[in-house]
Amino acid sequence: MVLSGGCEGYNLPQGVISQLWREIAAHRPGMITKTGIGTYVDPRLEGGKMNKISTKDMVKVITFEEEEWLYYAGFPVDVAIIRGTCADENGNLTLEDEGAWFEILPLAQAAKNSGGIVIAEVKYVALSGTLNPKAVRVPGVLVDHIVVSAPENHWQSAKTAFNPAFSGRTREPMADIPPMALDERLIIARRAAMELYAGAAVNFGVGIPQGIAGVTAVEGVPDLAVMTSETGTIGGVPADGHDFGMSYNADAFVEQMVQFDWYSGGGLDIAFESFAQVDAAGNVNVSKFNGKSVGCGGFIDITQHAKKVVYVGSFTAGGLKLAAGGGKLKIETEGKHKKYVKQVEQITSSGEYATKIKQPVMFVTERCVFELRDGKLVLTEVAPGIDIEKDIVAQMEFKPITTPAPKLMDAGIFQPKWGGLQKIVAAKSKKPLLAAE
Question: Would you tell me which of 152, 163, 320, 349 could form a disulfide with 335, CB atoms 3.0–4.6 Å apart?
Fold first, then answer.
């Protein structure tokens, strides 16, 4: 309906949205942040508008203390639909079975202070006065209606009904993670893992980035980095696929908007994110394809503020087949679709902004590695067995900088068994590795 113009629609960064509820709840005019500058959310590009009938400017560029910021306007919340595990007769909510806390508290506050209503879904109802007050995450004074949902309708994620390891009740053994097949996903995950160092706070995006955690486990350094999820988990191992947003064995849970406070202030040492399109200026698109918007999620908040960003993905898409072994890589069937294009369909990450703030940015593929330097893509590494002109330049819609000559990627990552990660990360880690026995 949004895409066809049947109603207004805006797509804004996930972190901004989660933080904006607090501003609305407090009757402040809106939120001021750097998040979104130079991306499609910037009103000088699209302003986050998803169709022609969405004419209201939800985002404005302002200057404050001689710096450029984006201002996201507040708006009244008429209805908030939230979820907890248990509610008592007064509406107090607990979250003990949930896989994340999200931002249900400020959202409920925003609705109530806007004159709206709050509807809460729960599994159970308890007698008033029987809940531990420190376990209550949303006080009953903010809740208008309780809907009791049968457990089969109260799933933790799109895939899992309930896993106690997602809610912190148990810790699930992770040492038996099956090794990945020797394909482009494993090669990319191995090369990306070489950017880790002990104690780094990281975020893994959906898709290939999730494989990096598996690589660290297989390579004997499962506790190398502090893995986090934008939904509010810290520590443990983020889940992938339709469990994305959950984490196995998290060390701590915080609200989503609090996690994004940390992210926005530069708390992430490295963000590992997927890419769908990249252009010559280092712009990245993950949010719109063939006119259809899939949304940005927390991608903009995460990539724009991390100390370093490592984008990971196959070089081409659609039917790519390769052969790896003997320390070399051979492209057997090239992908049908180019991912390095003249101009991305939508700017979800701005290469110009990354260059301006001097943010280190890398692009890791199965056959080569690029770095963003002075606003241009520079080819820095090539897989053994790969022809630069035939397998790289000819498969791009623009020519990257290829001088000085790129070095060879580590031959070990193209073997069925690697075993080289510990030595690589130990050489640059700021504190000793805790290797698995």
Answer: 320
Contact 330, 323 (CB under 8 A): yes
256 contacts: CB under 8 Å, gap ≥ 6:
15, 18, 100, 101, 102, 103, 230, 231, 232
Whether 230 sits among the annotated catalytic residues: the reply is yes
Q: b/e for 53-62, b at 16 or more Cβ within 10 A?
A: ebeeebbeee
Q: Where are the domains of the chain?
A: 14-73, 81-100+108-153, 184-426
Residue 437 is predicted with a pLDDT of 40
Q: Burial letters for 69-90: b for 16+ Cβ neighbours within 10 Å, e otherwise?
A: bbbbebeebeebebbbbbbbeb
Count CA atoms closer than 13 A to 147's CA, side-chain side.
10
Mean pLDDT (whole number) for 345-351:
98
C-alpha of 417 from chain center: 29
- pTM here is 0.94
HSE-CB of 50 using CA atoms within 13 angstroms: 20
Token pair belonging to 179 = 């090794």
Burial class (CB in 10 A: 0-12, 13-18, 19+), 347: buried
Q: Which of 178, 229, 224, 188 is nearest to 205 (CA)?
A: 229
How many whole angstroms separate alpha carbon 172 and alpha carbon 228? Answer: 17
DSSP secondary structure letters along 62-115: EEETTEEEEEEEP---SEEEEE-SEEETT--EE-TT-S--TTHHHHHHHHHHTT
AA letter at 39: T
pLDDT beyond 90 at 172: no
Residue of 23, 98, 195, 230 marked catalytic: 230
Fold of 184-426: Glutaconate Coenzyme A-transferase (3.40.1080)
Q: Is 274:311 a contact under the CB 8 Å cutoff?
A: yes
- Residues 29-60 have pLDDT tens digits of 999 999 999 999 999 999 999 999 999 999 99
Query: For the segment 242-298, what is each residue's pLDDT rounded down to a tens digit?
Result: 999 999 999 999 999 999 999 999 999 999 999 999 999 999 999 999 888 889 999
- Distance, CA of 270 to CA of 289 (rounded, Å): 26
Q: Give the separation between CA 373 and CA 360, rounded to whole angstroms.
A: 8
Would you state the structure tokens that stand for residue 167, as one six-digit string?
């809610």
Which residue, 98, 146, 144, 102, is CA-closest to 121? 146
- Other beta carbons within 10 angstroms of residue 161's beta carbon come to 11
Using the predicted structure, report yes or no on whether residue 436 has a pLDDT greater than 60. no
